[in-house]
Design a protein that fits this description.
Blueprint: E1 2-3, H1 9-20, E2 39-44, H2 51-58, H3 61-64, E3 68-73, H4 81-86, E4 91-95, H5 97-105, E5 109-117, E6 123-127, E7 143-146, H6 152-163, E8 172-175, H7 183-188, E9 194-198, H8 201-209, E10 212-216, E11 226-233, H9 234-239, H10 241-260, H11 262-273, H12 277-280, H13 295-307, H14 316-320, H15 323-329
Parallel strand pairs: 2-3, 2-4, 7-8, 7-9
Antiparallel strand pairs: 1-8, 4-11, 5-11, 6-9, 6-10
Helix pairs in contact: 1-5, 2-10, 2-11, 13-15
Amino acid sequence: MRSRNFRSSPLIATVIIFLAAGCSTAGNNAALSSASEPDITLAALPTADLAGLYIAQDNGLFAEQGLRVTIEKIPSSAAIIADQLRGKVDISAGSYVPYIVAQAAGARFRILAEASTLRPDTRVLVTTADSRVTTVADLVGKTIGVNGTNSIGALLISALLSGQGISLGKVHFVTDSGGFPAMPGQLQDRAWDAAFLAEPYVSLAGEKYGERVFVDLDQGATLNFPIDGYVATQAWAKKYPKTAAAFVRAIQEGQALADTDRAAVEAAIGQSDKLPPEVTAVMALPDFPTGPVDVTRIQREAEAMLQFGMLGSEYTAEVQQGALVESMISPGS
C-alpha cells in the first residue's frame, strides 16, 4: 500500500507522455480497417456493478456474437489506462472518472455502454465493528482505504465530505493495490480507520468479519450517480467497429438479465469472485442501464469532477459546454 494524492495532475501527465510518444496515432490513420476482430481482452473490476458482463460471459452471449472475451481482473480503472493506451487491453470495465481525466488531457476514449448507476448500499464506507468512527465528522484526521487513485471512490467521498463542510485535505487516503477483494481483510488488520467498498465486498466484510457500514454514499449530490461503464480507445473502436457493435449487443443482453433476474446476478458474481451464497444472497445491487449511453448522466459526473477538483479549472468551459463528455460518446468526435 502507499499513500496517494487524489489530484488529477499525475494521471494527466502520464496521458500526455503517452500521447507525445505516439500512442494515439492509430486514431488519426485514414486507412484504418473496419475488419472485425473476434478476440477481446477486457480488464474489469470484480464488482456487482459489472454483473451484466459476467452474465454475458457465463451465458455465452459473447460467443453468440462470434466473440471470444478474456476477462482480466484489475483493482481500479486508473490502474489499466497505461496498458490500454499501449494496446494491451481492448476494453475496460470500471469507473468513468480516470477516463474523463485522460480525455481532458488529450487521450481519445469512447464509452461503448453503461454498466451501473448508484443505488443504496452499493458504494459505502465501512469500519470495524468496534471502531469509534461512527459519523462523517469522525473521519477528520483519519485514514481511508480506497481501491484506486483518481477513481469513483475519490469523487463520492469528496462529495460526501463537502456536503458536511469538511475539506478533502482533512482526511488521509491510502490506495490498496489489491483492490476490493483484499480490503475487508486489510481493514480488519487496522490498516486504516475506514474503507471504501463496493458490493459484493460490502456484504463479504459484514459476513466474514462483522465489519459495519457507517455511511452509504448514495446520497446528496451523488444520489443515483453513474458509476461504471465499458470503455475503449477511439482508435480501437474505429478499427474494429463490427467487434465493438457485437460487444455492445452482448452487453445489452447481459444488462437486461442483470436488471430483471437477481438469481442470474448472484450466480455470475458468485462464480466470478468465488463467493459463497451467504454473501451473494444479501448483496445490494445497483441499477443496470440499457440502451444508448446517456449523455446527461455522464455529464453529471464530469461536472461533479470539476466541482470537487478532480478536473482543473482550465477545463471549465469544455465541461460546462458538454464538449468533453460529447467527445467520449459521439462516434463523430
